[in-house]
Design brief:
alpha+beta, Ubiquitin-like (UB roll), 5-stranded mixed sheet, 4 helices, 12 strands, elongated, Doublecortin_dom_sf, phosphatidylinositol-4,5-bisphosphate phospholipase C activity, PLipase_C_Pinositol-sp_Y, repeat, Doublecortin_dom
Length: 238
């Protein structure tokens, strides 16, 4: 290629790409070089590998408003984007890892309650006073959605001192999980065995919310909990 051709070539752009629905993913830097990526699809294939997406990336969105990017020319140098498959854009605070966007209120106990449900404490399990969750007599579980390898687990914060009403817990799980199959009818461990009561829940463990369908044995933890994820720092030990 002549020096004139090189001079006219579009300059490379540096962007940071996040995984849709993953509030703890730190983002990956990707160089957009139009000499290397002749099509937008080729770039999306590179993003799929770079962010280790569980499914092929087919859409890019702006992180704050979810505007869809349709071609390479729309990418801006130094900007951030969210990579998704065919699922809807999930509105998180991607630029501040580990936090949900944007609205929240405080309950009567002074605990943060996020209206989108990321750090929602079930109202029938209030943990009073301040300090660490462990000191408050609370324990923490993480719950995956059955068959869903795109959404990270959501947290479930419970009180050790308040008797657990199982039907009430299932109703809370139904609201938070928002399963495509409908209501959550059972809670399973990662090996597929069913939890039959609140006394079987273990602090810091991971579970799967299941509807009427069969439990789907998938690598939830391996694919949805990054090795250095803040989820692991939230696992409390008695």
């Amino acid at each position: 290629m002549s020096s004139r051709g090189l001079a006219l070539a579009p300059p490379a752009k540096n962007v940071v790409v996040y995984r849709n629905g993953d509030p703890f993913f730190p983002g990956r830097k990707v160089v957009v070089n139009q000499r290397r990526f002749l099509t937008f699809e080729a770039f999306l294939n590179e993003v799929t590998t770079s962010i280790r997406a569980p499914l092929a990336v087919r859409n890019l969105y702006t992180p704050r408003h979810g505007h869809r990017v349709a071609e390479l020319g729309e990418l801006q140098d130094g900007c951030q984007y969210v990579a998704a498959g065919f699922e809807k854009f999930k509105r998180l605070d991607y630029l501040n890892r580990g936090r949900k966007e944007l609205r929240g209120t405080r309950n009567s106990d002074g605990l943060q309650v996020n209206t989108s449900g990321w750090l929602l404490v079930p109202t029938f399990h209030s943990c009073r006073n301040t300090g660490s969750l462990h000191a408050l007599g609370c324990f923490y579980c993480s719950v995956f959605r059955n068959g869903d390898l795109l959404s990270p687990p959501f947290p479930l914060l419970l009180s050790k001192s308040t008797p657990l009403q199982w039907n009430t817990l299932l109703a809370t799980l139904t609201e938070k999980a928002d399963l495509r199959s409908g209501a959550v009818n059972k809670l399973c461990r990662l090996d597929g065995t069913q939890v039959s009561g609140g006394e079987e829940l273990v602090n810091g463990h991971y579970y799967v919310a299941v509807g009427n369908e069969e439990y789907k044995k998938l690598p939830y933890f391996e694919l949805l909990v990054p090795q250095n994820s803040a989820y692991k720092t939230l696992r409390y030990v008695d």
